[in-house]
């Protein structure tokens, strides 16, 4: 069990297809450091991959803009976030059997315990997030951020706008 202190890390990555794989690698290593159970860590890596892919494909922003991937553990929840500078909201699609894409958000909705979007500070872009419940006795404190990311204090000061749009996992 954690000592109640949030465990939080953020990575800034270029908006490119290569960043999707890099984010997966970074999250997998961080989840091991935090002693997240393997099954939950694998699901988190898959969900991060979907959110990063969506941001790379659909966040139509100026060249050179970065994506921010964030992972944090608090109160027996692993939260994954991907932020971009596009204000376009993600919309789940009904992908047909022959479609090569369009299943990412359906996968997030099916596997995450909760997911949604919220505006970034100063209304520059959005954050798409998902959460996975952790068993109360599984995650151990002491695994700090790995050196390849920048630590984040978890504060959300400056966030503006209404309540986040939320989706919940069907029972």
Q: What are the SSEs and their pairings?
A:
Elements: E1 7-14, H1 17-33, H2 38-58, E2 66-74, E3 77-84, H3 104-111, E4 114-119, E5 126-133, E6 150-151, E7 165-168
Antiparallel strand pairs: 1-2, 1-6, 2-3, 3-5, 4-5, 4-7
Write a structural description.
With 171 residues, the chain is an alpha+beta fold. It is 27% helix and 26% strand. The protein is built from three helices and seven strands; from the N terminus they run βααββαββββ. The chain has a seven-stranded antiparallel sheet, with helices on one face. The longest helix is centred in the N-terminal third of the chain and has 21 residues, at 38-58. The protein is globular. Residues 142-171 have low confidence and may be disordered.
**Count of beta strands:** 7
What pattern of helices and strands is seen along the backbone? EHHEEHEEEE
| Oligomer designation | single chain
Mean pLDDT: 78
- Give a short account of the largest sheet: 7 strands, antiparallel
Record the strand order, biggest sheet.
6-1-2-3-5-4-7
Beta-strand proportion: 25-35%
Number of distinct helices: 3
* Shape category: globular
Low-confidence parts, pLDDT < 50 over ≥5 residues? Answer: 142-171
| Helix vs. strand class | alpha+beta
Q: Specify Rg, calculated over alpha carbons.
A: 15 Å
Q: Give the distance, in angstroms, between the N- and C-terminal Cα atoms.
A: 26 Å
Helical amount: 25-40%
